[in-house]
Amino acid sequence: MIDTVIDVRKLGLTFETPDAPVVALQDIDLQIRRGEFVTFIGPSGCGKTTLMRIIADLEQPTSGTVTVNGVSPREARLKRAYGYIFQAAALYPWRNIQRNVELPHEIMGVSKRERAEKARRYLDLVGLKGFEKKFPFQLSGGMQQRASIARALSFDPDLLLMDEPFGALDEITRDRMNEELLRIWGETKKTVIFVTHSIDEAVLLSTRIVIMSARPGRIIDVIDSNLPAVRTLETRETPEAQELAHRIRLGLKAGHSYDEVK
Ligand SMILES: Nc1ncnc2c1ncn2[C@@H]1O[C@H](COP(=O)(O)OP(=O)(O)OP(=O)(O)O)[C@@H](O)[C@H]1O
What we know:
- Strand 8 (208-212) and strand 9 (219-224) form a beta hairpin.
- Residues 257-262 have low confidence and may be disordered.
- With 262 residues, this protein is of the alpha/beta class.
- The strands form two sheets. A six-stranded mixed sheet has the order 5-6-7-3-8-9, with helices on both faces.
- It has helices spanning 48-55, 73-78, 97-107, 112-125, 141-153, 171-188, 199-205, 239-254; strands at 4-15, 22-33, 37-41, 63-68, 82-85, 159-163, 191-196, 208-212, 219-224.
- The structure holds adenosine-5'-triphosphate.
- Residues 15, 17, 22, 24, 42, 44-50, 215 line the site of adenosine-5'-triphosphate.
C-alpha cells in the first residue's frame, strides 16, 4: 500500500476570466501521508476550496502535478477513492435519511439488503440511530450534516475531503461535530483533508496544519501538531494547544491575512 496518499508538486491554477487572469494557486508543494489529519487554513479566497477541488478532479490545474494514492485525480475519482463533504449537507428532501445514504449504492447496483445494512451501520456510527426514517427537514442542521458524513463514509473511502463541513453550524453543534469527527477518525484511521476558517478547530483536529496566504494562494507555513493523539474538547485549553493556536495566528499574520480570519 502506498504511504503517500496525496502528492502535490509545483501546482498552479490560473482562472481565465473576462477581466484578467485570476491566479488562484501558485507553486503548491504538499505531501500527505496515510492516516494524517491535515487542515488547510487561510483567508477567504486563498484557494483552499480550489486545491481541494483539484485533488477531487473537479478542477484542472494549469501547471504542476497531483496524484491521489499514486494515480491521477481522475482515476482516483473513478475508483471512488475518497469521500467529499461540502459545507452544506447535500441531501435529497424527498428521501428519508436512510434512503439518502443508500442512494449512491442504489445507483451502483448494490443489492437492497446490502445497501440497507450499510446505511444503518454508518448512520449508527455518526450517532443517528433511530432517525433512519426521518426526512431531512425533520432534522437539525448538524444532524443533516452527520447524515451526509455517513453517506461519504459508507463507501469506506481511505480519504475524506471535508470543505468547511461545520462552517454553517452554531458553536455548540460544531463542538459536538468536532468530537464526533475525532471519534470517527480515531476508529477508522482515515486520511482527512479538512478546510476551516477556525483556528480552534484546526488546533483540535489536525495532526498537521497548512497555512495559506491571500491570493495568489501559496503555502506559507506547515505546522506539525504536538498534541496527544487522543483528544477531547478540553484539549483546546491545554498550554500546548494555546501555543499551537498562537503559532497559527503568527503564521496567518505573516501572510498578511490574519485580519480576514475569524
Ligand atoms: N471558476 C472560477 N473562475 C474564476 N475565479 C475563480 C473560480 N473559482 C474560484 N475563483 C477564484 O479563485 C480564488 C480562490 O477561490 P477559493 O474558493 O478556492 O478560495 P477559498 O480559500 O476556498 O475561499 P473561502 O474561504 O471564501 O471559501 C478566489 O479569488 C476566487 O474568486
